Write the structure tokens for this entry.
Amino acid sequence: FDAVDVIRTKRDGGVLSAAQIDWVVDAYTHGVVAEEQMSALAMAIFLNGMGRAEIVRWTQAMIRSGERMDFSRLSRPTADKHSTGGVGDKITLPLAPLVAVFDVAVPQLSGRGLGHTGGTLDKLESIPGWQASLSNAQILTQLEDVGAVICAAGAGLAPADKKLYALRDTTATVEAIPLIASSIMSKKIAEGTDSLVLDVKVGSGAFMKDAERARELARTMVELGTDAGVRTVALLTDMSTPLGLTAGNALEVRESVEVLAGGGPADVVELTLALAREMLDAAGRPDADPAAALRDGRAMDVWRRMVAAQGGDPDAPLPVARHTEHVVADADGVLSGLDAYAVGVAAWRLGAGRARKEDPVQAVAGVELHVKPGDAVRKGQPLLTLHTDTPERFDRAREVLDGGVVISAGRSAAERSAGQTPV
Ligand code: URA
């Protein structure tokens, strides 16, 4: 095969053959196809798409580029969840221990944040002592002993995707449905989970800004999983405003612990429970009551054991930023918009995220919300608190928030519902 022929086929809107796909993915993984050739091919795929058979074959080729994990010796069924990423999306933290309460093993192989969305591993690393890297043997032991593990996906899992994702990130080819679907599903299928619940985000803070494309991404991933023998379901959930009241690493751990203690913001609790019910259903536990496990401390108990098993101290105080500043309301009215993307970029600029893979992140940096869309606000009232160790970052964070916080005249959601007359 010749890489130029493969690129030309896709450039001209043709269909790649199974043999072409197998060859190009393998040759790229081994450095035979050059980065510039794969970047041209990724752009051709971005522009011209892929048919179902091509996506299935591409995903299989990515799985074959590395090892497959095997959880079949565990005494319990496995269930995993994947979110396509958003702002303030800390759901994995309370969800994994919560599902494990019901004798389901939750192998949550996670990533780090890039750009404006946070990464689960970055969040957990704000817990003193906590380690992201585990061997496959350690993962299996922890799944058997504790039931839940959240750790870094090892280098052996879908190495083709590791290379390709880094390339896509620098060539504006991330947002292609065939490439996102095959990237996510190759890792999940190689991981070997029995069932998978996908949380596909829609809105300004997500990859997919409109519902139609999010639905297509969800459908593509569910088909890939189902074809590979993984029970796969997808929920489409809103990412137009941040989830919960925090975006930033230690801030999100704090909020997750509140949820595990039976409190926390309603939207975080609701989504955690909705995803838990899907996972428990898929794992053959339809009668489980996850809300009770948040209330009575069983989920917190698994969380503490999960953190401790990876070297973390669940009782250690979380780090706190040396500097904070408020963003205040500039008028009376109702908060009609608090844009997820703006808050995500602000948290990133404050130090919570990274611009390049190798950059460090600040555990303490981020944005704390005091109001949600629909709330009444008064001029001068603090809407957000910005957190960082490096105060020279405040100005650039404020800049991006300027258009993202919208106050309108009118009544708040609470006032509207209080004023409703029963019929
Ligand atoms: N997450 C992934 O793992 N891959 C993508 O392509 C996008 C999000």
